[in-house]
Amino acid sequence: MTQLITFIKKEFHHVLRDRKTLLILFGMPVVQILIFGFALTNEVKNSKIVVVDHAHDEVSTEIISKIEASRYFEIESFVDGPLGIEGAFQEGHAKAAIVFPANFARDLQHQNSAQVQIIADATDPNNATALTNYLSSIIQDYQSAMNKSAVFPYRIIPETKMLYNPQLKGAPNFVPGVMAMVLMLVCVMMTAISIVKEKETGTMEVLLVSPFRPALVILSKAIPYLLLSLVNVGSILLLSVFVLDLPVNGSLLLLLAESTLFIITCLTLGIFISIKTDSQQTAMLISLMGMLLPTVLFSGFMFPIENMPIPLQVISNIVPAKWYYLIVKDIMIKGLGFEAIWKETLILVGITLFLFFISLKSFKIRLA
Amino acid sequence: MNDLSNRAISIKADLLTKRYGDFIAADALSFEVYKGEIFGFLGANGAGKTTAMRMLCGLSLPSSGSATIAGFDIYRETEKIKKNIGYMSQKFSLYEDLTVLENIRFYGGIYGLSDGAIKEKSEAIIARLGLQSEADKLVSALPLGWKQKLAFSVAILHQPHIVFLDEPTGGVDPVTRRQFWDLIYEAAEEGVTVFVTTHYMDEAEYCNRISIMVDGRIEALDTPHNLKQQFQADSMDDVFYKLARQAKRVDL
User: Fold this and answer.
1) B211 bridge partner residues
2) By the number of CB atoms within 10 A of the CB, which of A150, A157, A189, B2 ranks highest?
């Protein structure tokens, strides 16, 4: 036991003395949360649009002021026609345009219908769809407010409700994703590198000759990173609650317990990589290319898994981050309890045990 | 020193062999090393020195043959062997980002020494090596010669029966090498058996007995004096050259 503590102390010395490691360890989560939180958002907020108003009547003015009043749009300028719109799009001043034809209000009153055109810059299709949807819904709102008294013979009114995330904020989606990514990076890469480093410098041999058991070497490498990763989970949660206004809806204890499980999965993965590689560079490359990429691609937080071809959907099942991402979303955003996530938990436990046993096996073979 | 054969046996190897498929890295090695002896293990690169040493240290399992280290069997009593040997690898075996004292404390802790013993040992090592003003500096700041001397002192920190040194003086200047050998002599006088591989023939002269490996086999084993007579050579260099010339394996 004292041997173990001696070793763990040594590991902390390594980590705390290496500025680069420290920076990656504690800087990365903060930077990622902030980048994803404020820069890489796909929410529509203060999008600039141009307006072509040939009507200049009370209805068009009212709709324009409603658009301007919403926090989604900002009116960049009023232009005269197609040329003005294209110019604004080409120079990147605006992402969408709305066109009111002449006699807009009169058509509406006399023919009971009027047309309004919405044009969007679809170089970014997702953004374009979002903008047109928001614009149409503003017009629809206006219309239904206007028609409150009117009675229509038949009408289907779809009532949409965005559950768990009514404001369609990006944070609920990416915070769990960033957590999975950061833990994956810290645990897999850092442990793999720190074990391989001992192999590279030759200290591993000295340790193996000593009475200190090989399994304990691995354990004492894992424990410091487990603790440091929990600190990371803490800092990500604090940032998301206090900076991004994203509360933890479910049980915090359950969330921490599941995070610990995922950290252990990552640690065994890191240990497995370190057993199979002999240089720090290889270990880093494998951790980055082999772990980070699948985490980003297959966890579902950037690209929806349901839309992928079947073979990729199948592959996504062996990516531990996918399951953790689902778990965190369920606990944090939906506020569900263990009964909702026992299946995912079981899968993570299974992956961990599997990695643990093949690591143990290859570690023994290496010693012989 | 002449009466080595009356002393207790520290290492006894009997037909120790290591095969990798068809390749025989170490071929039926048999030898005895006595307590307090400095035993030089020579051979060209790829002759099988490191393989032999790794088997004796318990880092690698022999394919056949047997050996005892400090009286313990290398198959069944590896844990006991580990407590009784020290090891200094070819690569530098201390942590560069720990201080001198932290390194000593770490290895003392790994070998299960008590805090009192570690403190006492640290002071002794630092006094012996004259590292008083460097004790709290990072090891990376020390010159190579000092690092090697420190690594040796750490390898015998737990007072092992035997210490294995794998090319301990690689890249070290002659003066420091001489000082390093002073440390080895001191350890041997205290009864530590020293098993050392080296490339330097002047160092071979410092050993009590030497074995020379060629192509995985021990081709010669005696005192430097007897070997020179046997091969009618003026120096160990000549002896080594005459033997190594027969080698069929090229540098691996």
Assistant:
1) B41, B221
2) A189
Q: What is the pLDDT of residue A157?
A: 65
Residue B141, chain A, CB below 8 Å: the answer is: no
Please, are residues B147 and B171 in contact by the beta-carbon 8 Å criterion? no
- Reported as a pLDDT band with limits 50, 70 and 90, residue B87 is very high
Which of B54, B60, B91 should be substituted to probe chain A, the one whose Cβ sees the most A Cβ atoms within 10 Å?
B91
d(CA B212, CA B41): 6
3-state secondary structure of B188: helix
Q: What CA–CA distance (Å, rounded) separates A260 from B21?
A: 44
Residue numbers in A near B95 (CB within 8 A) = 10, 14, 201, 203
Position B250 pLDDT exceeds 70: no
What are the structure tokens assigned to A74, written together? 């900002």
Mutation for B interface: A15, A198, A209, most B CBs within 10 A: A209
Parts of chain A with a pLDDT under 50: 368
Provide the pLDDT confidence category of residue B144 given band limits of 50, 70 and 90: confident
- Tell me the one-letter amino acid at B69: I
The answer to whether A100 and A15 have CB atoms below 8 angstroms apart is: no
Instruction: Check if the beta carbon of residue A279 is closer than 8 Å to that of residue A196.
Output: yes
How far apart CA A140 and CA B188 sit, in angstroms, is 95
**pLDDT tens-digit readout, B99-129:** 999 999 999 999 989 999 999 999 999 999 9
Decide the pairing of beta strands B72-73 and B64-69.
antiparallel
pLDDT per residue over A142-199, tens digit each?
A: 887 777 666 665 666 667 676 776 666 666 777 888 888 888 887 888 889 888 998 8
pLDDT at B38: 95
CATH class for the region spanning B37-61+79-244: alpha beta
Q: Is the pTM of this model over 0.80?
A: no
B86 bridge partner residues: B163
Cα separation, A221 vs A275, in Å, equals 13
Q: Which of A343, A282, A281 is nearest to A317 (CA)?
A: A343
**Rounded distance, CA A282 to CA B111, Å?**
32
**Which residues have C-beta within 8 Å of that of residue A51, sequence separation ≥ 6?**
A64, A67, A75, A77, A78, A79, A97, A98, A99, A100
**Is A301 within 8 Å of A295 (Cβ atoms)?**
no
- Phi, psi dihedrals of residue A135, rounded to the nearest 5°: -65, -45
B83 Cβ under 8 Å from any chain A Cβ = yes
Considering only residues B189 and A213, tell me which one the structure prediction assigns the higher pLDDT. B189
Return d(Cα A32, Cα A27) in angstroms, integer: 9
User: Does residue B60 belong to the interface with chain A, where contact is any CB pair within 8 Å?
Assistant: yes
